[in-house]
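agent: user wants the full assembly modeled, not chains individually. Plan: 1) parse entity lines 2) check alphabet per entity 3) run joint structure prediction 4) return tokens. Steps 1-2 passed, two entities, 432 residues total. Proceeding.
--- entities ---
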Amino acid sequence: MIDTRGLSCPIPVVMVQKAVKDAPAKLEVLADAEVAVENITRFARSQGYEVSVTEDGIDYKMTLTK
Amino acid sequence: MKKQFALRAYLPVIITGVVVGIAALILTAMGNPKNMGFCIACFERDIAGALGLHSAAVVQYIRPEIIGMVLGALISAVAFKEFRAKSGSSPACRFVLGAFVMIGALVFLGCPLRMVIRLGGGDLTAVAALLGFLAGILVGLVFLKKGFTLGRAYPIRRGEGLMLPGFMVILLCLLLFAPQLLKFSESGPGSMHAPIAVALIAGLAVGVFAQRSRLCMAGGLRDVFLMKDFTLLSGFLAIWITITIGNLVLGSYNLSALSQPVAHSQYLWSFLGMALAGWGSILLGGCPLRQLILSGEGNGDSAVTVFGMIFGAALAHNFGLAGSADSVVDGVYKVGGIKTPGMVAVCIGFVVLLVISLTHLPKKGD
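--- prediction returned ---
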């Protein structure tokens, strides 16, 4: 699980960028800002991942799958 | 599906860019200085002056545009359930970074937004600033890729997240009900302003649109190099194109490097000033405009950054660090620009940014 909560833009995307270098089939990301969810979604889709987002209290749980 | 997603992502940013461009043209037509429909750095500097934090008599006014942007972002964030009070991500570093971003911008005579507005007016002196801004962003990206971070922000009490919006409400009350307490320029850029209601409405509109679209001048260029994402850049370009078309239609487009309004032709220092602003913006996670919007969303760290920028503006004018515009005196073209203190301040800024960048990299074993 990549925890991006509380980190400024664009660090959440940089963390996901590093994680997808190994081309995992599935990645789970925790975010606390809509903007982080949008940025990660755009990036993940550009890398061929399907993205699903569920709200978890005040946070967002993202699942990236190939 | 992919095309639909791309359209959904681009459209809000492009619309925001057009709104910002039109608002800037209206504000200029109604009294704001030329090529300065919106300038976050200049307007925060004017606010610092109006509060007596610096004594440069020509740049003192409470700019309702800034108040409107923060309150517009707040209204939008609350309406769309995105208001999150949070703070704690190296606030002191952010204050210092905000101050140096401001100093860099005032050396050039404009924030990244005004840089684009100047380009849209045909001001070729701003090309050096654009190149500098890009260079600063690329330097910042090197550190981001190495793992730079100012640390996490954490949820805080709602009241803490409302500090900057509250400060803006106080400024608005002072402007409307107790202007005698404030300092107002009688000449120069500070004396040139659109009516309060027009400026406030323009600010509110830009605040709402920028909050929804995440418009960020630094983010636009950053995302292209970081992940080949052109979404935010489309807003940057939409502002440029809207302002260019507007100026052409209004007959105020002047493609030249000479005699541009509130601009100087010391290209090297425009380049270096905006390189400082660009690098600082990347470390902060957004340009000066974005810091205002984040403050409206409840981000206490961005509020501290804005206060740092106002402090930086006061420093810039109390110690003669800011640029002065080119002018024509007795028929002779006089090149403005910055003097030695401004050059030293920019150099100190680069050292400070380097130290902050290096000291916030992951330690071995992290």
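agent: reporting back. The mean pLDDT of chain A is 94. The beta strands of chain A are 2-3, 26-31, 50-56, 59-65.
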